[in-house]
Design brief:
- This protein is of the alpha/beta class and 418 residues long.
- The chain folds into four domains: 127 residues, 3-Layer(aba) Sandwich (Rossmann fold); 162 residues, Rossmann fold (3-Layer(aba) Sandwich); 80 residues, Helicase, Ruva Protein, domain 3, CATH 1.10.8; 38 residues, no CATH class.
- It is 48% helix and 12% strand.
- The protein is built from 19 helices and twelve strands.
- It has a five-stranded parallel β-sheet with strand order 2-1-3-4-5, with helices on both faces. A five-stranded parallel β-sheet has the order 7-8-9-6-10.
- The termini are far apart.
- The mean pLDDT is 85.
């Protein structure tokens, strides 16, 4: 029988919680303050901890910190009676699984306990099996190519993340490999048939987000329901409007543990929280496991390996792609370039050059002019503008020139398509 340690300084709360929790299949134990609660947990190590935030001498936040220090896998649910969510958000920041705001409904309490138990069991299964079957070391290293210290650190992080189900926030510039990491984490679910729902928050309208993410009565839209048992991948999370961010918090409280949540951003979300431009609770819900992906300019020693990797994937009518090589002078030019589009840009350059070369050995003269001459190096804004133009043209082509349909897909006013 799963066990719950209830830590609250009011005996009447113990009696009430015991009466509603016991019949649902949980065993209950009690402590009247944080210090006693910590001692009980160390002695018996419960499945869940349900702790009040306002206790003396040790309050709920301090208890949470010490529990997570003693046992990082501890699943702690905080109870708070405060009208504001400031204390609850602080609890999430320090690793609480969730919070309940008093007075809470019995069904809300039981649902939260069951989600916490599911998460506890998920962690135990992953810890017992090590790296998940779908995310073997060889699979990870075939997607994240390189031997630089920064990439080795990233690979180590991803291997660990493959064993847990907590929300992951991937932070990095465009083209640094956030999509590849998301694919790896999805594969780590061990269920190949499960859905991988990919949403780019920069490319859809607020109405689409409300329909797809929030749904009726904030219970989760079609995208959330499709992701159940799989992965919900939200790219460029900072592009969501503040009202949608706020509504997404309530959706995640009810549904986030039914799927793996992976979000990405190219901005410092914590700074945006401080500036009031990003919802604080949403940040702490998605950023419990932040991962920084290094730009290519910070691991330039990986360029030769990346070039070889992508050249082998090209299709050339004259040569076996695996025989195509880039000369030392070509590699030197590529190592000197600043790569505003990072690995994605390098892949595009290598694939196109290797596919069109008429000689097996590719020299620096065959590389794009922007790589060979610094005065032609694009800024990041110029590179992104080019990518946006290409994507818009692709959508228009897919929609057979129907501007109204393309505008709906892009989430923009049809007038912007000219």
């Amino acid at each position: 029988m799963p066990s719950v340690l209830i830590v609250d300084d009011l005996v009447s709360i113990h009696e009430m919680l015991d009466a509603v929790i016991q019949p649902t299949g949980f065993s209950t134990s009690f402590a009247t303050d944080g210090e006693k609660g910590l001692a009980r947990y160390k002695a018996d190590k419960f499945d869940l901890v349900l702790a009040d935030i306002d206790m003396k001498p040790m309050d709920g936040i301090t208890l949470l910190k010490q529990l997570k220090q003693y046992d990082p896998s501890a699943v702690v649910i905080i109870m708070t009676a405060y009208a504001s969510t400031e204390s609850a958000v602080q609890a999430l920041k320090y690793g609480a699984f969730d919070y309940l705001q008093k007075p809470f409904r019995v069904d809300e309490l039981i649902a939260t306990l069951r989600r916490g138990l599911e998460f506890r069991q998920f962690q135990a299964e992953r810890a017992a099996s090590g790296v998940a079957p779908g995310a073997k070391a060889a699979d990870i290293e075939s997607r994240l190519v390189g031997k630089s210290p920064k990439l080795i650190k990233l690979i180590t992080q991803v291997k660990k993340l493959a064993t847990v189900r907590s929300p992951v926030l991937l932070i990095g510039d465009i083209g640094t490999g956030k999509g590849a990491v998301a694919d790896i984490l999805h594969a780590a679910s061990g269920a190949p048939e499960s859905a991988f729902v990919r949403i780019d928050c920069a490319l859809s309208s607020e109405a689409n987000f409300r329909e797809g993410l929030i749904g009726q009565n904030g219970e989760g839209g079609v995208w959330v329901k499709q992701a159940k048992g799989g992965t919900l991948y939200l790219q460029q999370l900072q592009c969501l409007s503040l009202p949608v961010q706020k509504e997404l918090v309530s959706v995640l409280r009810n549904t986030a543990h039914g799927f793996r949540l992976v979000c990405t951003t190219s901005l410092d979300l914590e700074s945006l929280v401080d500036e009031g431009k990003f919802h604080d609770e949403l940040f702490y819900r998605v950023a419990s496991l932040p991962v920084q992906l290094p730009p290519l300019r910070d691991r330039i020693e990986d360029v030769p390996l990346l070039v070889k990797h992508y050249a082998a994937q090209a299709t050339n009518p004259l040569f076996d792609a695996k025989l195509i090589e880039f000369t030392a002078d070509a590699l030197a030019v590529m190592a000197a370039y600043h790569w505003p589009g990072n690995v994605s840009e390098l892949a595009q350059v290598v694939l196109k050059t290797a596919a069109t070369t008429e000689t097996r050995m590719v020299t620096s003269a065959q590389l794009p002019l922007r790589l060979r001459e610094m005065k032609h190096w694009p800024t990041l804004a110029e590179y992104l503008a080019g990518q946006e133009k290409q994507y818009t043209e692709h959508v228009l082509h897919t929609c057979k020139g129907n501007k109204a349909a393309a505008a709906k897909v892009l989430g923009i006013d049809v007038g912007k398509l000219g």
